[in-house]
Structures are given as C-alpha cells and as structure tokens.
Amino acid sequence: MVRSDARENRARILAAAREAFTEDGSASMNQIAQRAGVGAGTLYRNFPTREALVLAVYEDEVARIVATVPDLLAEHPPLEALRRWTTDLVEAMRKKHGLGDALSPGAQQAINEQSYGPVVAAITQLLDAGKKDGSIRTDADAGDFLQLTGALWRAPSTPEDRAPRMLALILDGLGGPHR
Prior knowledge:
Blueprint: H1 4-23, H2 29-36, H3 40-46, H4 50-67, H5 69-75, H6 78-101, H7 105-133, H8 142-154, H9 163-174
Helix pairs in contact: 1-2, 1-4, 4-6, 4-7, 5-6, 6-7, 6-8, 6-9, 7-8, 8-9
C-alpha cells in the first residue's frame, strides 16, 4: 500500500508536470520538481525518466476525460454529451500534441496503446446512450468516430478554428432516425 504522503507527492508532481508541459513542452525535470515542491530524488523515485513522467501525465489526462462520461450523460442528451466530451478531448490532445512530438516513437506507441481502450470504451458508452434513445444511428462505431475526430486536434487552433464546425458535421452524420 502506498503511503498517503507518497500519493500526495505523486499527485503534486503530475499536476506540476501537466501545468509545466502545457506552458512549455521542454520544461526540465528540475523545474517540475521545484514547481511541485519536492526534491529531485522524490521526482525520480516516482518517474525515473522524463518519458515516464510524460506518459503518466497523458494517462492521468485520459483517465480524467474518460471519467466525465457518466456526469455528461446525466446532464445532457447523448449527442450533446458526445459533443462536449469530444471538445474536451480535442482540447486536451491539442495541449499534448507538441509534447508528444518530443517523445520517442516507442513512447508515442505506448501512449496510443494505453489510451485507445479507455477512450473507445467512453465513446461506446456515449454512442450507446444515443442509440438507445434514437438520437444516434445504430451503426455508429466508436473506432470510426475516434479516427474521424483525430482530424480535429490536428486542425490548427486559430481564430478561424475549424474543429467546432468539423465536429458538428461528424455529429450530424451520426444522427439517428428519431432526431
């Protein structure tokens, strides 16, 4: 069992790393340790390499986004819940995209493999809710949706951001017969 202070240190390190990487993808391990208020030894005990820390930040962010599905479905109709969830995913992926470029191909593959299952399960939950109430077509597939939305976080985030319009087109194509 992990001691509570060790859990708190790990959480502080992840939060500091998330902030640091969002501001500057090249933040050093020492800068992150200082920001988290821990010594270098504590940081390296938890995350022996920079890549291990980056992978943990990605994993933590994916878990946070996946965990929002039940609340979104409780508060919104399925298509709106899917729109909000996808917008959150796109925002998170845009923040992480530059950071991912700095990782080795093996680390990038590990991120994709670790996040694919939970993300597809979350999309499936959202799609199933819409299939059940007739707002989403019955042949909608989570893997297809994820592949289509991959274009959204690669679209430049400019004043003329195309991602919201592109997402609207994707969601319109998902519409079921009873909309």
